[in-house]
Task: inverse folding
């Protein structure tokens, strides 16, 4: 559940319609020291939360979700906050080349998923 407070400068938002993946990613990131990690099960609710609370430091979005793909979601956030940083996580095999050119893609079904995710988070949130 979203907090009424604004996101901090180190906040991470995870948007994934598969709750177990969002929860695992959140738990992993918190275990390695990222305290403010918020999850949303659908892009519409995430977009509303971001409208209300401001731009998080990083958004990690699933690609294949009902009603809105991850790239469309991130583009919607970019309209509000052009400075937003986003990464797409997916098991989808056919990511369009124009999406892969715009966003970092991390495959959830790769054995090094968590290490790649952590590396990207650290790069994006480095001071």
Result:
């Amino acid at each position: 559940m979203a907090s009424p407070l604004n996101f901090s400068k180190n906040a991470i938002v995870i948007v994934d319609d598969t709750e177990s993946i969002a929860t695992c990613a959140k738990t992993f990131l918190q275990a390695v020291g990222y305290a403010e990690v918020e999850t949303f099960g659908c892009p519409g609710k995430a977009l509303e939360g971001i409208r209300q609370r401001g731009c998080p430091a990083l958004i990690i979005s699933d690609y294949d979700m009902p009603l809105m793909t991850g790239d469309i979601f991130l583009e919607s956030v970019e309209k509000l906050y052009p400075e937003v940083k986003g990464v797409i996580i997916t098991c989808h095999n056919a990511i369009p080349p124009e999406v892969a050119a715009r966003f970092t893609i991390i495959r959830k079904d790769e054995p090094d998923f968590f290490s790649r995710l952590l590396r990207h988070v650290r790069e994006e949130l480095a001071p």
